[in-house]
Amino acid sequence: MARKRDPFTVDLFSNLKPEPVVDRFDEEDVKAWSVAGRLAKAVALTMEMSGKSREEIASEMTEVTKTNVSKAMLDAYASQAREQHSISALRLAALAIVTGDARAFNTLLEEAGLIVVPRKYEALLRRERARELLEKLEREEKAADAEWRANR
Questions:
Q1: Are 54 and 75 contacting, i.e. CB atoms less than 8 angstroms apart?
Q2: What pLDDT does residue 26 have?
Q3: How confident is the model at residue 93 (pLDDT cuts 50, 70, 90)?
Q4: Does residue 50 sit within a domain?
């Protein structure tokens, strides 16, 4: 017999939404016909949401890359109409450093099934990988034991 739900007790976890581990743009915000188009939208959103002007971003990216980055270049990188002018990996990294926003990387890497994860989670990822390896070794050990017992 199923228990009746108490209508007077509030579920404390009903509205709990954990913070995402991987930052991404909303899929609709970067929807485009091509990867280059999605990346251009992501670059535009990154700059727009940074709170800095494109001139400021260009200046700071120039300092990071030690190469000239102009506002006109940023405008081209953010334009879907100029897909042949996609942002380079070095400049995308500089954009992430300057804005503190790596979501454009995740937009780009989604096709490859990869993500950018904050460094603070690296130890947890190593731990989980070690656990997977231990489980695999334990399965191999049990299979070898079973084979040994069967052949005695």
A1: yes
A2: 80
A3: very high
A4: yes
**16 in any annotated domain:** no
Rounded distance, CA 60 to CA 53, Å?
11
pLDDT at 83: 66
What residue numbers bound the domain in which 97 lies? 27-116
10 belongs to a structural domain? no
2 has pLDDT over 70: no
Same domain, 52 and 90: yes
Label residue 76 left, alpha or beta by phi (over 0 means left) and psi (-120 to 50 means alpha).
alpha
Question: CA distances (Å), 12 to each of 6, 15, 50, 98, in order?
Answer: 13, 7, 34, 39
Q: What is the pLDDT of residues 23-68, one digit of tens each?
A: 888 888 878 788 888 999 999 999 999 999 999 999 999 999 999 9
